[in-house]
Amino acid sequence: MKTGKKLGAGLILTALLVSAAGCGGNEANTNKNTGTSSPGSEATKAPEASAEKVKIIYSMWGSAAEGNTTQAVADRFNASQDKIEVEVQAIPWENYMTKLNTLATAGQLPDTGMLKEDGVIQWSSEGMLNDVSAMYEGSDSKPLDSLAYKYQGKPVAYAAANEILLLYYNKDMFDKANVPYPPSALDQAWTWDQFVDAAKKLTNDKNGKHPGDDGFNAQSIVQFGASVENLPWQLEAWTLSNGGGFYSEDGTEVKVGEDASIEAIQRVADLYLKDHVAPLSVGQTDDGIQRTIIAGTVAMATNGQWNVGTSLNTAKEEGLNYGVAVLPYMKDKVTISTGGANVVFSQTKHPKEAMEWLKWYNSEENNWELISSGIWMPTLDKWYKDEALTRKWVENPNFPPYDEYKSAVVDYAQSPAARPAAWFYTNYTTDFNTLLGSILGDVWTGKTTAKDAISKNLDALKAAHTGNK
């Protein structure tokens, strides 16, 4: 997950969660939602009448070709009923927010569309987004609560897909070292100390020595035991796990300067600096699974669930024997939930129809290709609670064994451990994360400590959080 323009400081940055349904902000992958429907989807139903339809404009970032692909999906919706006609408006990524701001000023915003994760709360605070709490009224299911973007306690958007952070591991490396696999069950999650201890047993120098052994050479490590992704938005999970956080629960105050938050960040840095179980990472690129698990240099690594579909399926076909587990924890068991937003703009004259379109468009049936491949996870709670639906989703060759994945992903995602990423409830997260990433650069290399780096820049971080850099 990259920072800056790529939505949400990296949120969807790997080629994954960014599709036409608005998950993340990687312009190169913004429209993987081809809208493939499963047999029996309501999208195949034909209208019974030909009354004049309400016209809805849906905006998205992407090329004209990507817009045409999404329009083909919308055309299925248009043909499925006789009340609403959706027209897709594709805008190049680099101009998307500029164009929306211009349209907002002119009072000409589309009815609905994609919006950067880090822009949802800001736009809502400026009165530009509709309350969507009624979108799922009367439905048999609704999105997981961790996927609701909320302003002043009300949902102003729902994520178009779900993603959580996991621990991936190489089963062959664990077997060779005779180390038990990390647990997939939340109630058996490793403590941080257990995680580090296992990582030491899985770290080998060129002479087969482990950290703590006589003669171990930290300069000649050939296999590392662990890697914890240190992109700023993912680091928030560890600060929360240690009893701190980046922000207060209501998102109004910065907490990254508190001792618990600083300690958590330093523990991540010390995996490389002191424990000698992790390779150096400076928190700038979102290719952690490719650099670690897939490269065969690291036994276990943290990152988002989307990696199952974007890279691990191919690696599995090539012989990688990997597993998934819940994250270890410091004090509290925590993972982060995230997903890009589709919104209803407040300037629309047809909020009800706009919500009806989004509800249809975001349905699992219309994103099945992304879900079944492992790039996206469903948003509706019934896919997590109804075993028949869970099996339809998970029992396929693209996923690890059913029981393992269900415990480490499906159950984990609906547990109290799943916390919404900061952009679900507070503002200016890209500014904050970009600055934090810059500040922490020298922490990862040991030139300074997390305490010194954050303390010296705390006022600037607080200013970034309020939009006053």
From TrEMBL:
Residues 27-41 have a biased composition (Polar residues). The keyword Signal applies. Gene3D superfamilies: Periplasmic binding protein-like II. Coiled coil: none annotated. PROSITE patterns: PROKAR_LIPOPROTEIN. Residues 27-48 are annotated as: Disordered. The keyword Isomerase does not apply. Keywords: Signal. Residues 1-20 form the signal peptide. PANTHER family: ARABINOSE-BINDING PROTEIN-RELATED, DIACETYLCHITOBIOSE BINDING PROTEIN DASA. This is ABC transporter substrate-binding protein.
